[in-house]
Design a protein that fits this description.
With 450 residues, the protein is of the alpha/beta class. The protein has 2 domains: 198 residues, Rossmann fold (3-Layer(aba) Sandwich), CATH 3.40.50.720; 219 residues, Rossmann fold, CATH 3.40.50. The chain contains 18 helices and 14 strands. Strands 3-2-1-4-5-6 form a 6-stranded parallel beta sheet, sandwiched between helices. A 6-stranded parallel beta sheet has the order 11-10-9-12-13-14. The longest helix is centred in the middle third of the chain and has 32 residues. The relative contact order is 0.09. The structure holds uridine-5'-diphosphate-glucuronic acid. Uridine-5'-diphosphate-glucuronic acid binds next to helix 10 and helix 12.
């Protein structure tokens, strides 16, 4: 089938590459001429494992191409996917839909025959109806229909998430539209992937927000349990394992850390709250999730300062990992940002290393020394802090780290290392939610009587 994709961000580019790999003929469109020129030379605008190879293979096979000319791209297509950004609107947290509506207008005007406009961007309930209204104004007689097909891929695991999804959700209001989407996703059954689920358009739009809000809530929940573990002398990793083995709860998204970040959870939880507010239908649990996560990110700075004896003025803090999670160069809403701010406000000197995020980080952070590798970060620092659990930080020579540090303190905000191993290497270890006396022999429990 011939498909056009508007927008070459994470979702657009990954979808385009994967659809072409399924055998469809795909044209990816972006207004950013330099981005298109770079893509034509095989240069990816984002870091995503395996994406460059997949793009190269499919461009070579003649199934994938890039253009800034929307009108040519949508000639003879069966479907046009809109995968443009829906950032938080400045000031009010609403999703900014101006790019979606602009794309819909241009596509409706440019289409030369019947096609489905498929919204893949994350958009509030009712956006599909608005796109349909725009289409009926601009091109009432072209036979254009509108569907919603939210994307659930994770950065860093985008290709496998796209090709082996737990489910594909299609919100459509009529049978011909559903069959176009069914044909596009048919190759997935060859991958033994599961369900293609058809719903109404509004339901599909809400599924996306409900899924992200639920996952964000899981993370915020286990983070608060982690805090409680520290106070009562329990181990959050044990708690996660113990509750996650219950299939009704599930093991995933129960890893305690410095708080969720990225381009989706923070933005989508806020946008969902706006929808709830606009419709006078409160989402108190999501409200609590957002509030707990915000305060957690700030609390992480204080946790590091406490681990360093309460004063950091003039001391050097080494940070490993800056991106909001591993295997991405994305710094958006990363917990590293408020952590660094808190440390700098308290007078600390911050040194950091990230395998892929330093270029973006340099544009967002000031007065940070960027080091070439983890050992250069540790050299002479007063504490080493693991902020993001990159694989490259999982097998460090802890004895060497302890020897390099001026004060041998390791603050492990992702619980990468067992406390015992770090302590055996000569480090004072502070993890997240590890209040278990046995695994942290140096921890002094609060006097229960005091
Ligand atoms: C998230 C969803 O997982 C995807 O399904 C969705 O498609 C995507 O948003 C989106 O809406 O586009 P992503 O933002 O790439 O994907 O990252 P996640 O892997 O979900 O992680 C989000 C944040 O939660 C990260 O900061 C991560 O470190 C944190 N997290 C996640 C934890 O702290 N603990 C966990 O157990 C899991």
């Amino acid at each position: 089938m011939r498909i056009a994709i508007i927008g070459t961000g994470y979702v657009g580019l990954v979808s385009g590459a994967c659809f072409s790999d399924f055998g469809h003929e795909v044209t990816c469109v972006d207004k950013d001429v330099s981005k298109i020129a770079a893509l034509r030379h095989g240069i990816m605008p984002i870091y995503e494992p395996g994406l460059d190879m997949l793009v190269e293979t499919n461009v070579r096979a003649g199934r994938l191409s890039f253009t800034d000319d929307l009108a040519t791209a949508v000639k003879n297509v069966s479907a046009v996917f809109i995968a443009v950004g829906t950032p938080s609107r400045r000031g009010d947290g609403h999703a900014d839909l101006s790019y979606v509506f602009a794309a819909a207008r241009e596509v409706a005007a440019a289409l030369d025959g019947p096609a489905v406009i498929v919204n893949k961007s994350t958009v509030p309930v009712g956006t599909g109806d608005e796109v349909e209204r725009i289409v009926s104004e601009i091109a009432p007689d072209k036979g254009i229909t509108v569907a919603s097909n939210p994307e659930f891929l994770r950065e860093g695991a985008a290709l496998s998430d796209f090709k082996r999804p737990d489910r594909v959700i299609v919100g459509a209001e009529d049978e011909p539209t559903r069959s176009v989407l069914a044909a596009i996703y048919r190759p997935l059954s060859l991958n033994q992937s599961s369900a293609l689920v058809f719903t109404s358009r509004r339901t599909a739009e809400l599924i996306k927000y409900a899924a992200n809000a639920f996952l964000a809530t899981k993370v915020a929940f286990i983070n608060e349990i982690a805090d409680l573990c520290e106070v009562v002398g329990a181990d959050v990793q044990g708690v996660s394992r113990g509750i996650g083995m219950d299939n009704r709860i599930g093991r995933k998204f129960l890893h305690a850390g410095p708080g969720f970040g990225g381009s989706c959870f923070p933005k989508d939880t806020l946008a969902l709250l706006k929808t709830a507010d606009d419709n006078d239908s409160p989402l108190r649990i999501v409200e609590a999730t957002v509030a707990a996560n915000e305060s957690r990110k700030r609390a992480m700075g204080r946790k590091i300062i406490r681990a360093m004896g309460g004063r950091v003025r003039g001391k050097t803090v080494g940070l490993l990992g800056l991106t909001f999670k591993p295997d991405t160069d994305d710094m958006r809403d990363s917990p590293a940002i408020p952590i660094i701010r808190a440390l700098q406000d308290a007078g600390a000197i911050v040194r950091a290393h990230d395998p892929e995020g330093m270029e973006q980080a340099k544009t967002m952070l000031s007065d940070v020394d960027f080091a070439a590798d983890p050992y250069a970060v540790a050299d002479g620092a007063d504490a080493l802090v693991i902020v993001t659990e990159w694989d490259a930080f999982r097998a460090l020579d802890l004895k060497r780290i302890a020897a390099l540090l001026a004060t041998p303190t390791l603050v492990d905000l992702r619980n990468v290392y067992p406390a015992r191993e770090a302590v055996a290497a000569g480090l004072e270890y502070v993890g997240v939610g590890i209040g278990d006396f046995e695994s942290r022999p140096f921890v002094k429990m609060a006097d229960p009587v005091a």
